[in-house]
Amino acid sequence: MLRTAVRERAAGAAAGLALATVALFAATGTVAHADAPTLRVTNLGQSSAPVEVGQPALEIAAMGTCASPFTLANESACPAGAWPPLGRQWGSIEDVAGGDTLRFEFSSPVSVVKVGSTSNYTPGLHDPDGRAIPNYDVVSESAAVSTSDPAVWVTTLPPLDYRAISTAGYTFSVAAQDGSGYHDYPFGIRSPRYANELTQCGTAYFSTGVSQYLCLDRAVKGPRSQGARITSATYNGHVLTLTGEVPAAGSLRVGVPTICGKRAGGACHRRTWVVGRAAHRGRVVIRKALSLRLGRGRPMIMQIRFGTSADDLSFSTSRVKVHITSGIR
User: Does the pLDDT value for residue 32 go beyond 70?
Assistant: First the structure.
């Protein structure tokens, strides 16, 4: 479930971004509404987790006309296809920390804004032990808060746990009403948020009061690192062997992308957790029988949980190229 290196960021004019969003959701049957206001999403952060260098604002086009945001509790409130399906990325993703305030700026005034958010697991997903992994509501349907400008609204995220670090991010849905009716805006949120989103290296905020030093797409190294890292990975067609380093005795969980595009740079869209325990500080080896479909010649971003106890948990990532010694699926 942890994050990938792929980042969708708003990098052009609103019209160009709207067209890209339409293409992304063409398979769902939703169509952008040209007469609807566009939505600009900005993360304002929070006083205990300040934004030093923020992300570019997301520009999102309206994709439906349902009066309700998407949540599992009201999943039947909108016609099928009104929102994108679960199990895939919901468009551009905003990096967040639990407790952050999101700012919604519409291109014209609106009178009502409602929001919702859910986890984004593929329906029917199971863990390696066969237990079902159900989706859940992260933000129940709720009203955003108006400001003195009727085109600008805000909402504050609840505390987020480790599940917010996921491949496709959480879903986030905004349903806004103006004189012509309701307009729906889908995007994604994902933790952590970096104090400096330009470098994505340094202080990473996961939720209010939860942060660590982290650098995206490379092993966390140096004296400031408090986490574990994976240094090599080998797959023989049946068993994945991971070699890593841990700062102390404790439990280690490594999120491994298990289905990736076969071409170099292909996206990974499912992750399996490999679990082991280190008896002491230093080198650790963990193995798991897995059926992998890996892209040839591409490194994988493995997301790591390490803890000496349930209350002492660190997060990190390691970018590792898997050495394949036998057939590949």
Answer: no
Q: Are residues 224 and 258 in the same domain?
A: yes
pLDDT band at 252; cut points 50, 70, 90? confident
What is the CATH classification number for the domain harbouring 233?
A: 2.60.40
pLDDT digits 0-9 by tens, 216-241: 644 333 333 346 888 888 888 888 89
- 20 belongs to a structural domain: yes
Inter-residue long-range contacts of 25-29, CB under 8 Å, 24+ positions, other chains counted: 25/63, 25/84, 25/91, 25/186, 28/81, 28/83, 28/84, 28/85, 29/81
Domain match, 30 and 147 both: yes
Q: What is the pLDDT of residues 1-14, one digit of tens each?
A: 333 333 333 333 33
Domain limits for position 130 = 14-194
CATH number at residue 102: 2.60.40.10
Nearest to 100 by CA among 43, 19, 140: 43
Single-letter amino acid, residue 175: A
pTM: 0.60
Structure tokens at 65: 């006309």
One domain for residues 257 and 127: no
Looking at the structure, do residues 103 and 236 belong to the same domain, yes or no? no
Phi/psi region, residue 262 (left: phi>0; alpha: psi -120 to 50; beta: rest), is alpha
What residues form DSSP beta bridges with 190? 95
Least Cα distance to 197 among 51, 315, 329, 91 occurs for 51
Buried b / exposed e over 80-94, threshold 16 CB at 10 Å, is: eebbbebbbbbbbbb
Same-domain status, 189 and 258:
no
Percent of the chain with pLDDT over 70: 76
